[in-house]
Amino acid sequence: MSLPAPDDTESTPIRLRHIGFGDPLRWLVRGLHDYLAHPAISLFYGLCFMAMGWTLMKVYENAPAYTLAMSAGFLLMGPFLCMGLYQMSMRLERGLLPDFGDSLTAWDAHIGQMAIFGFVLLVLEMLWGRAAMVIFAVSFDGMPDLNGSLLALLDPENLGFIVTYLGVGALFAGLIFSVSVVSIPMMLDRQVDAITAGLTSLRLVLNQPAVMVWWGLLITVLTVAAMLPWFLGLLLVGPVVGHASWHAYRATVIDDESTEADSSA
After folding, report:
1. Rounded to an integer, what distance in angstroms lies between the CA atom of residue 218 and that of residue 177?
2. Residue 122 contacts by C-beta under 8 Å, 6 or more apart in sequence?
3. Residue 133 burial by Cβ neighbours in a 10 Å radius (0-12, 13-18, 19+)
4. Residue 161 phi/psi, 5° resolution?
5. Which among 92, 77, 95, 76 is positioned nearest to 39, based on CA atoms?
6. Which of 1, 7, 9, 19 is nearest to 215 (CA)?
7. pTM of the model as a whole
8. What is the pLDDT of residue 11?
9. Nearest CA to 200 among 12, 1, 4, 2?
10. How far apart are CA 67 and CA 57, in angstroms?
11. CA–CA distance, 252 with 206 (Å, rounded to integer)
């Protein structure tokens, strides 16, 4: 008697769509459209981002060695904070009216997997912070103050410290970006576990590194520019990037249950 063929649906990798260098700009435009559709909800999250920026500045004033680690905290908290923005964009995409309370409770149905994913990011953030502390410790006799750390980063004589400090930061930031760029909106949209979502995100970055580096660079430049006027720019840039990240997920991860998605590939 012949045995039934095994079900390969769980072992089949989630399919990814090929993207071009113009796509990240389109994601930003769609993110701006979502922001303007219901600005009050988006503005709330913008205020949260601005408060995070002020917190970062306070940490930099009092403990500059922890600044890079706190920046990692931005990368850790940002995607989770954006979950409400993802929920808003998802409802707009489906022709539904966004609801502020609904955006605040977007965690409810995914709390277990989100906790696992958050723990992984937290470990990476702690390793980043420890690495930053070690670099400061071996480069200086004591931890410099605010002005001292600025001078250290601008002094050509500290080139070895600068390259190491920024290199380690780029390594950890790139790793966190790679495993989270589409994973959280994927967990919101699909019944997938944290490991599957993280590996799919990493696979996307490894398969299309040039475009995804361009996307990460756009996010970095916009975020840094938004921080310059007392973080006020985050009122707009933070929510727009959050909405755009939802569209990045929808544009890169193929929904096998949607014939429309397949036809646009």
Report:
1. 13
2. 76
3. middle
4. -65, -45
5. 92
6. 19
7. 0.81
8. 52
9. 12
10. 8
11. 13
For residue 158, what is the DSSP state?
G
**Burial class, 68, CB count within 10 angstroms (exposed 0-12 / middle 13-18 / buried 19+):** buried
d(CA 239, CA 230): 17
Task: List, in sequence order, every beta strand (DSSP E) within 37-191.
Answer: none
Q: Which residues contact 223 (CB under 8 A, 6 or more apart)?
A: 234, 237, 238, 241
Q: 253: which strand partners?
A: 16
Residues 6+ apart with CB under 8 A from 149: 60, 64, 65, 67
Give the pLDDT score at 5. Answer: 42
Bridge partners of 16? 253
CA angle 125, 234, 99 (to 5 degrees): 95
Burial of residue 205 (CB within 10 Å: 0-12, 13-18, 19+) is buried
Amino acid (one-letter) located at 151 = L
List of residues 6+ apart from 2 with CB closer than 8 A: none
* pLDDT score recorded for residue 75: 58
Task: Decide: 21 and 245 in contact? Cβ < 8 Å.
Answer: no
Amino acid at 201: S
Q: What is the pLDDT of residue 153?
A: 65
Question: What average pLDDT values come out for the chain (265 residues) when binned by 10 residues?
Answer: 41 85 97 95 92 77 62 64 89 88 70 81 80 78 58 71 85 90 91 92 96 95 86 92 96 72 39
- Give dist(CA 233, CA 236) in Å, integer: 6
58 token code pair: 């306070």
**Token representation of residue 234:** 């985050």
Residue type, 192: V
